[in-house]
UniProtKB/TrEMBL annotation:
Keywords: Signal. Residues 1-20 form the signal peptide. The keyword Signal applies. It comes from Krasilnikovia cinnamomea. This is DUF3558 domain-containing protein.
């Protein structure tokens, strides 16, 4: 039970940091030391790993689904969680795509734990092995497929017209088809 809470807390913390845009920056200036070269190589490896999440959706697809232009996707590797953040240019929304590769059993258990804790989860069909959406306190679609546990979180969607949850679910279908 404590392990499950730790996993949930870790996932929540990782998603919060990603949504806040927190990350490290290499502020070494013009010091071309071997250490900064190693740090750069490690950063490049993290960026390459995080590209996996950004390879699952394009900015054009997010723009079409949400009806607003978005900035370039921002990949981030948070250890076992790879994310890709899309921010609206005019509106104040952010779409965060998070993907975690786990064992099939862990992916299902993680999904089920989140579904039980979600406020008014709505079961979705046609997305992964199982999927649900929730709109409180933010619009979120979560699904799992094989070893992959995927979450799409939309915040700041107050200015978007229509049904943001249906739009995010459509994006989730595209992601699931590419896994």
């Amino acid at each position: 039970m404590k392990h499950g809470r730790l996993i949930a807390f870790s996932a929540l913390l990782a998603a919060t940091l990603a949504l806040a845009g927190c990350g490290s920056s290499d502020d070494t200036g013009a010091q071309g030391s071997a250490a900064s070269g190693e740090k750069g190589a490690a950063g490049e490896e993290q960026a390459a790993a995080a590209e996996g999440a950004c390879a699952l959706l394009t900015a054009a697809e997010v723009e079409e689904a949400l009806g607003e232009s978005v900035s370039e996707p921002q990949p981030q590797d948070l250890g076992t969680l790879q994310t890709c953040k899309f921010a609206g240019d005019g509106a104040q929304f952010r779409l965060l795509l998070g993907i975690r590769d786990q064992s099939p059993l862990s992916a299902r258990q993680f999904f089920e734990m989140h579904q039980k804790r979600a406020q008014d989860p709505q079961t979705l069909s046609g997305i992964g092995t199982a999927a649900f959406s929730t709109t409180s306190p933010k619009t979120e679609v979560m699904f799992y497929l094989g070893t992959e546990e995927v979450t799409l979180t939309l915040t700041g969607d107050d200015e978007l017209s229509g049904d943001p949850a249906a739009r995010v679910a459509d994006l989730a279908k595209k992601v699931a088809a590419r896994l």
